[in-house]
Model the fold of this input.
Amino acid sequence: MAFLPRFAFNAFLCMFTICAPGLISGQLIYSVPEEMKQGAFVGNIAQDLGLNVHQLSARKFRLGADDGGRYMKVSLDNGILSIRERIDRERICGEADVCIIPFEIILEKPLEVYRGKIEIRDVNDNAPTFPQSSIALQISEANAPGVRFRLESADDPDIGTNTVTAYTVSSSEYFSLRTQKTEDDIIIAELLLEKSLDRELQSSFQLFLTATDGGTPRRTGTAQILITVLDNNDNPPVFERDIYRGSISENAPHGTLVLKLKGNDLDEGENAKIVYSFSDVALRKVGNLFSLDPETGEIRVGGQLDFEEANSYSLNVEVVDHGSPVMTGHSKVLIKVIDVNDNAPEIKVTSASNIIPENAPPGTLVTLISVLDRDSGENGHVRCTVPRNIPFKLQTASDHYKLITSEMFDREAISEYRILISAWDLGSPSLSANITMSITISDINDNAPRFAESSYNIYVMENNAPGASIFTITATDPDLDQNSRVSYTFHENQVINAPASTYLTINSMNGTIYALRSFDYENLKNFQIHVQARDAGMPPLSSSARVNVIILDQNDNAPVIVSPSEHSGSAAVETVPRSAGQGYLVTKIMATDADSGQNARLVYQMVKSTHPSLYKVGQISGEIRTARNIMQSDTAVSQTSLVILVKDNGQPSLSSTVTVNIKVLENSTEGIVERSNLLMDPEYLSDPNVYLIVIFSCTSVVFLLIIVLLIGIKCKQDRNNIQAYNSRSYCYNPGNSHGTFNGRLAMAETLRNPGTGRVVRVSDLNQYSACLSPESAKSDFLFLKPCGASTS
Done:
């Protein structure tokens, strides 16, 4: 470093100065002299903060938008802080002892803020200057040696040793220079009369007053002193004090008295009359802030004071008498401005983003908040808060606040927060400031699609048109955007050993279900599928609902007559003995309908009869019975032909007919022979008939066994209530037109079995009766039950 000048060497050391306590608290301190060239090195911020130079650009390394950013710049390549423009300490800080330029270093991704300050050191770049290039003095020859004449002080905007430190005057046998330093380190120069003047010998003098500062190199300023020797007024006015001190609040109204000057002149008459005024330098400093009454010497507030702009004023005042020659006295006035709480806090938010994901954990940094108050003392001491009923809180850092999250978020409940940030100072009265910042909660896929119900029932009429819409199932998702976009699919269900996709299809976008085929109730009455709703989030979430597809019956099947059957287009033939009485069971029409419910409820009706008064058919049972006793005249009719219509209760109704021929026999032998011949006929015993007889017999046996089993269980459970149930049961006997059942008559009654020609006695086990409870009248079905059993 030996090749550097001493000034440059000192500057070089100061530029690398970092205050250790500041570094610990996240604050850098640099010291540079003023008047450095543009681009001059200030400090290596990246190195001092331990930052990775290669990541500065990616992390958006920058200076904050404050005074530091105006005078300084930072390089993204190496993190070096340098001079942006010329720094004039006197223009920035005026007469302040310490000149500080704060700066702020901001890094985003993640957000970090470092604060620092640059101390601008004064250099001796200003020479002392006098208010005027010449100073005119009028000195009476009557003045005795030893009289002092106050001279105007030179002004040097530099501070410390760079300001005025000495005055000298050119050599003269009549005059010399005396200086004295006040307690405020202000040098006062006075011209001392060393020898009595004689106006007749020399009426004027010309001297040169030189002001020298203590900088390196030293700078000087010179003013010419023109002295005119006068007669008479030999006492200059003087102030009672060399320095006047006063204080005033910055909010003092116009006209408020600051202090009062007092000057004296030992002369008499006109020579003792004095006038007060500000010096030219003082007038330039105070402008219209203060006024001085020339007669009374009162200094009053003349404008709006601002402690934050200037906290003190140093003014030169003069007192001039009315003598001839005029004589002048000088003094200095120091006015201190008292701070009042007239500045509200200023809230500054440094935020990387105002969007926070709803799964952000508590403690997540949202933004940094700086609160500044230009006042001083308690007036500048600031507190900051946010409301308590929000999931955010403030955390105090070194010289700022951190706004962090305090709870987990639920965007579906609250998607945006407007946070009121309040700051107030500790002044009296306290001043406050508020700002509102908006925080948006971004969505994550934390909600699965939800169906309104866990199970749906779809009713589809059979014989539906393939491709028609049968139902729309909808799931909702409270998330946003793609997290709420729901698509629908079927789980791979099996319907009669076939995939559900062969029966139904679903629109993946809106959940509309379409039938791919026409359903047949007789083959498929219901089936079950599972629909899955899945959102488009990452990862996707899903839920499912069960859909029960119920096929509704249509009346698309006509009744099929099972018995008696017609053979080769010929009507069925039945026989009745001559001895048969009223209500004799000739035969029973048995029919089936593949439909269900009302569509399968059959009604029997006789539509044609060659002998209508002799036979009747049961509307419900289908039993053909004699309507009266067979008389002798009826035997003359060899055969009665009946056409029986069997129709269902559907809409529209479907029907079938069967023709039955009935013969009246005089003796039973003839009938038996005829029926035996029928049984031996191979055409009558064809395979379909045998199959039908076997199936019908097996079904009847199983049905009777089930009824017996159910009756046994029910009787055991309701043994104590049998009589009550019997009292509410109605027994119907097909052979009794009055609706009552006579067991003995049924036991004794003989029945000619159709097609056999034999008279067979019906055993008790083959007897049946239909028990109709009051409730059964409301049902679509008629159930057979043993008389007296419970109908529940």
